Amino acid sequence: MLYCGDVLIAAHLGLLGGGRLHYWFPVYEPGHAKYSPGKVLLAEIMKRSEQLGIQVIDFGEGHADYKEAAASETHELAKVVMAWGARGAASMLPLRWEWRFSG
């Protein structure tokens, strides 16, 4: 958690196990957004990672500026969705279309 005086301005909720921090839910007080409290908190976590027992910070899937700025490497993952029968296949058409043309 990151405080400005007595005011909580940023926090993170995730899991730490086996040296891997799953960085799931970073939040910050919108009134302090111009000071980037979420990025300040992440920088502090990274700075103290060794003493916190963190070897890897896993930002999860998706793109965000803070992830790209903080990452030293990326890993491509595959998504697998199975749909059974004709109705299942039909329900998958919009998703398959999105995946195919998302770049």
From TrEMBL:
One of its GO terms (molecular function) is transferase activity. Keywords: Transferase. Residues 2-68 form the BioF2-like acetyltransferase domain. Gene3D superfamilies: 3.40.630.30. InterPro entries: Acyl_CoA_acyltransferase, BioF2-like_GNAT_dom. The keyword Transferase applies. Pfam families: Acetyltransf_6 (PF13480). Coiled coil: none annotated. This is Acetyltransferase (GNAT) domain-containing protein. It comes from Acidovorax soli.
